[in-house]
Amino acid sequence: MILLEKLGQQLGHPTRSVYGWLITKFLKYHNKMLEESAVSLSGIQPGDTVLELIGVDYSKYMHKMAGDLLKELVSNGKVSLYQCDVAAMPLADNMVDKVFHCNCYYYWPDLRKGAAEIHRVMKPGEGRVVSFASRREFPGRSWQPEAYMAALRASGFNQVTMEDHQHRHITCQAIYATADK
Ligand SMILES: C[S@@+](CC[C@H](N)C(=O)[O-])C[C@H]1O[C@@H](n2cnc3c(N)ncnc32)[C@H](O)[C@@H]1O
Fold first, then answer.
1. Closest ligand 1 atom, CA of 62?
2. 42 pocket-lining for ligand 1 (C-beta < 6 Å)
3. Source organism's superkingdom (predicted)?
4. CA dist 41 → 6, 29, 35, 51, 75 (Å)
């Protein structure tokens, strides 16, 4: 149980440690399918600015790991990475076409602030958010899709819907939201 609690904490904010290292192995294996599904459901078009190609994570450890992994894409300007809170991103208003995130919102300390900040950076028009989540697996996570959907609506998103996706033995929930401004 203590091990699961430690791993659960690390999922929400990985640090350079044995537990953090274990979590990165888990994420690489388990979340690959989630990330690929989120990308395909986002309907990304050539030329779109996508939050993830602008990568945001407040964990120093994950930020460094992503930087190492994507060194070439970062150095040729195709990917930008920021170590910051999703609720305070160093991005201009109205600059992002699509946002996707996997297994993330339930770690945010304030869903409303996170959703409002995402709304702020999205371009006016039909900007779309896709949030992909697998069910609760570790203690300490508050997997509350309805609360996140409510935060998205309160932040100005509309057409906020959720649907189940089955990938082999894993059931995931995709939340969609449109940022008409
Ligand atoms: C379970 S991991 C998922 C990572 C990745 N999407 C994947 O599927 O492998 C959750 C990540 O969200 C980050 N995170 C949690 N709360 C955050 C916040 N408020 N702002 C920025 N990053 C946050 C954590 O540091 C962690 O790296």
1. 27
2. no
3. Eukaryota
4. 32, 20, 10, 14, 28
